[in-house]
Design brief:
The complex is a heterodimer of chains A (144) and B (81).
Chain A (H helix, E strand, L loop, with lengths): L4 H24 L7 H19 L1 H7 L2 H24 L7 H8 L4 H29 L8
Chain B lengths: L1 H21 L3 H21 L3 H25 L7
Helix pairs in contact in B: 1-2, 2-3
Classes of the chains: A mainly alpha (144), B mainly alpha (81).
Chain lengths: 144, 81
C-alpha cells in the first residue's frame, strides 16, 4: 500500500477536510445534531485514514504516546473543570446558569456548553486513536 | 411510496443480519455488518433521530469495522465451526 500514489495523494487531500468537519460537528453540537462524541470519533477517523495510507510510524511520529496521554487527560480536566467551576458559583455540577447569573454575562451558557463539548471531543479523539494504534501495532512494542 | 422504501430497507437489514451470522469468512461478515450499520443509519434518520443516526454512522460503520478488521488480522480469518 505504501507505494500507491493515488491512495497517498487522496488521503493527504482528505485528512484536513475530515478534521475540519469534525470540528464543525463539535461546535455545532449545542444547536443541532452532533456533539463531542461524534466529532471526536470523526477526528479519530482521520488518523485511521492516515494510518491506512502512510503506515504506523508516520502516525506515531505525528501523534506520539505522550501526546495521546496528554490529550486524553486534558479533555477530562476541561470537562471536570467547567463542572466544578459551576459548584464554586453555588450551583450543581455542570449547572451553567449559576455562573451566568453570578457574573451577569449574557450568553455565557452556550459558551460553556461549547467548552464542555470540546473537552469531550478531545478525550474521545485521543482514546479512539489510542485503541486503534494499539490494535494495529506489533506485540513487541511496549503497551501504554 | 415512502413506506415501500422503509420496508425495503428493513428487509435488506434483516437479510444483512442473517448473512452476517451464517457466512464462514469473518472478513465478509465484517463488511456485511458495515452495510447493516449504514442501512440502520438511514432508518434512524427517517425516524427523525438524527443524533442516533450520526453515532451509528461514525461508530457502527466507521470505528467498529476498522477494529474488527484489525482483530481479524491478528487472529484467524475463517471460523471453524
Amino acid at each position: 500500500m505504501r507505494e500507491n500514489v493515488v491512495v497517498r495523494t487522496v488521503s493527504r487531500l482528505f485528512v484536513p477536510f475530515i478534521q475540519l468537519f469534525a470540528l464543525y460537528v463539535i461546535v455545532h453540537g449545542a444547536s443541532g445534531p452532533g456533539g463531542g462524541f461524534q466529532g471526536g470519533v470523526i477526528f479519530a477517523t482521520s488518523f485511521i485514514l492516515l494510518l491506512i495510507a502512510f503506515g504506523l510510524p508516520c502516525v506515531r511520529g505525528r501523534f506520539g504516546r505522550s501526546w495521546i496521554r496528554a490529550y486524553a487527560a486534558g479533555g477530562i480536566i476541561i470537562f471536570a473543570g467547567v463542572g466544578l467551576t459551576c459548584i464554586l458559583f453555588s450551583g450543581n455540577f455542570l449547572e451553567y446558569a449559576a455562573i451566568e447569573t453570578a457574573l451577569g454575562i449574557p450568553h455565557l451558557q452556550t459558551l460553556m456548553i461549547d467548552i464542555v463539548e470540546a473537552g469531550i471531543g478531545i478525550t474521545v479523539m485521543a482514546v479512539m486513536t489510542s485503541i486503534i494504534l494499539d490494535f494495529v501495532g506489533k506485540e513487541e512494542e511496549e503497551p501504554l | 411510496m415512502i413506506w415501500v422504501i422503509t420496508f425495503a430497507l428493513l428487509l435488506f437489514m434483516i437479510i444483512c443480519a442473517l448473512a452476517a451470522i451464517t457466512v464462514r469468512d469473518l472478513l465478509h461478515a465484517t463488511i456485511i455488518l458495515a452495510a447493516y450499520s449504514l442501512v440502520m443509519t438511514v432508518l434512524w434518520a427517517g425516524l427523525n433521530a438524527v443524533d442516533v443516526a450520526f453515532t451509528e454512522a461514525t461508530v457502527g460503520a466507521g470505528i467498529t469495522t476498522v477494529l474488527f478488521i484489525a482483530a481479524i488480522s491478528r487472529t484467524r480469518r475463517c471460523s471453524e465451526d
